[in-house]
Amino acid sequence: MSTATGSTPNAAPADTRTKRIVVATELGYCWGVRRALDIIEQAAQSDGPIAPIGDIIHTPQVVERLRARGVQGATSVDEAAGRGFQRVAITAHGMGPHLSEQAATAGLELVDTTCPLVTKVQRLAQKLVRQGYFLVVYGDSYHPEVRGIIGWAGTSKAVAAKKIVDLPWNAPRGSTDPDAAMPPRKVAVVSQTTKNVKELMAFAQELQAMVMPLGGEFRLCNTICEPTSERQNALRRLVEQDKVDLILAIGGRKSSNTARLAEVGNQMGVVSRHIERPDEIEAGWLEGVDTVGVTAGASTPDDVIQLVVDTLVGFGYTAPEGGIRPVDPDYVPAY
Ligand code: SF4
Q1: Cα dist from 197 to 77, 90, 202, 218, 225, whole Å
Q2: Taking residues 83-99, what's their average pLDDT?
Q3: What is the Cα–Cα distance from 315 to 304, expressed in whole angstroms?
Q4: Which residues are CB-contacts of 310 (< 8 A; sequence separation ≥ 6)?
């Protein structure tokens, strides 16, 4: 039987799908990481081996590349001195003031690659403490950036927290509960630069309700950096405008900002996978997927992103027009 238009009912429609890759407009190396790598590579090239303290970058492929150029990480100043290094470096995440003292004591030269946007938070933390605020750093307590900010605050009246239960208080000011641990009168919040603004606001709202009663003062300083916000907004556009069916967030396993990108994608209802290398992509992930959105964390280099795009092309997807993205060498975020 034919329909009025002559087509056969129940016949499978011809597969006219276009399988395509859409790359986020902002992704990969952020301004601060690019700057830090430039400084450290130039330092190694001009004056010989140098040891960054802690992970300079979370991408194993880049760590290998840097090692070949004389940049080899150490876990501490003592370890670097023991291995014969004459110079150590602070990474883009920054560190507390103790590091320059340790380097001076060990007789080592110090190269500071702290991102200026992190330095800004360190200075703000000092100022808030001087103004009498108890400082809450919204972020991961183990992260070097957060530990560095608390180090610069230089006070015991500072704490890192990601949830209200991480705080030393369990009740709003004015509570009559005999077991209540109440916040002090003045509390200020700054954020780790790579956090999600919506989650920061939800946290701050809850904390504000604990601090404000009985004349409490609460201050929220949004110190999430512009490149991080741009990456998260570009990811949202992949979902809302480009209607992607799957998101691949590329970055080292330990990269918290890559994990956050995948988290944001999943929260928006699109299956989002955090991958470190292209060979992790499974054919099964792509079943029924017309449009793959690609994003990458702040420490993911362009060549790793390109390899993922090439792998998707191998699975029959059309490469993004114009390549990964144009890099603006003159870009400097507002701060
Ligand atoms: S994520 Fe932001 S603060 Fe951190 S290094 Fe990059 S630009 Fe600087």
Answers
A1: 35, 27, 9, 18, 10
A2: 96
A3: 17
A4: 278
Grouping H, G, I as helix, E, B as strand and the rest as coil, residue 158 is strand
User: How would you classify the pairing of strands 291-296 and 246-250?
Assistant: parallel
d(CA 50, CA 198): 39
**What is the domain class of 31-114 according to CATH?**
alpha beta
Among the CATH numbers 3.40.1010.20, 3.40.50.150, 3.30.470.10, 3.30.420.10, which is that of 20-29+226-314? 3.40.1010.20
- Residue 323 CB partners (closer than 8 Å, separation 6+): none
CATH of domain 117-220: 3.40.1010.20
3-state SS class at 312: helix
Q: What is the band of 72 on the pLDDT scale with cuts at 50, 70, 90?
A: very high
Residues with CB under 6 A from ligand 1: 30-33, 92, 115, 117-118, 193-194, 225, 227-228, 298
Q: Are 62 and 299 in contact (CB under 8 A)?
A: yes
Based on the residue annotation, tell me whether 145 is a catalytic residue of this protein.
yes
Tell how far the Cα of 237 is from the centroid of ligand 1, in angstroms. Answer: 21
Q: Which of 145, 230, 240, 321 is catalytic?
A: 145
Predicted confidence (pLDDT) per residue in 174-230, tens digit: 999 999 999 999 999 999 998 989 899 999 999 999 999 999 999 999 999 999 999
- pLDDT for 12-37, tens place per residue? 455 556 899 999 999 999 999 999 99
Same topology, domains 20-29+226-314 and 31-114? Answer is: no
